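Please describe our next protein:
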Amino acid sequence: MAAITQYIGQLRPLISVSRPPFLALPITLIALGAAASAAHTGSISVIRTGVALIGLIALHISVNALNEAADYESGIDKRTDATPFSGGSKTLPTSDIDTTTVYRFGYLTAAIGGIIGIWFLLVIGPILIPIYVIGAISVLAYTEYLTKFGLGEIAAGLGLGGLPVIGAALIQSGEISSVELFAAVPAFILTFNLLLLNEFPDVVPDQYGGRANLIHRFGHAWSGRLYAVTTVSVPVIIAFGVVSNIFPRTALVALFGAVAAFRPVMWSVQTPEERPPTVVLRNNVIFILSTNILLATGLILPIV
């Protein structure tokens, strides 16, 4: 009984550093990639889609866990004023779990994602290798290297945005078309912006920890403008995809997601020097998740 209690005691903080609420993002990305492939080929492999989802969730958990451990060691975790969307889970400062255990957990979940990746490589072929290489760099080098050279936002946009959409499409048939490639563009921008906006509350602690995010390089005002421009570009890109016949007309349903972006955009233009209210961070997340899901829905509707 004591052993079971000890195991549960270790399991709870590991679940916490996994950041479960954030794991909705990979679900929307795999759905979008599969839907984009279906718009091109007319079918979806449920088994391959499910396995890909497990792999991407494992990799996302790995990023979250490794980032939490590194932020605790660097002192960032102790200095952030956490929100539900930024600042870490505060698991390490408030529980008995140590960073070694969290690092091992992060590497274990990365290995699970890697094993699934190898299986797909055997099934689909070497066309997946470039995605794997960039994805592995985005996961394993994110905290220690990429965030210190102003590349964290791009790495996130690729590793948990555009590349999973392309990968989820490729595993369906081993082929890629303009639909899948174009669907990856808004996914990249959305995740890029997810990280960018969530950096505003943590700008001082991140700088203390040696990070060089875009907000550190360009300041609050220019980073706010960048967020606003890239956010507005998402519905424009989707509309262009429809006008140019890359997307079906039903993809316009994804534009409804932009309603949630109004408040974050106004904040980023008017008061980027101030700490973003929780409602701004929340609406940004709603915009990102709903746009991915609505675009996936719009792409698959014509073949249902």
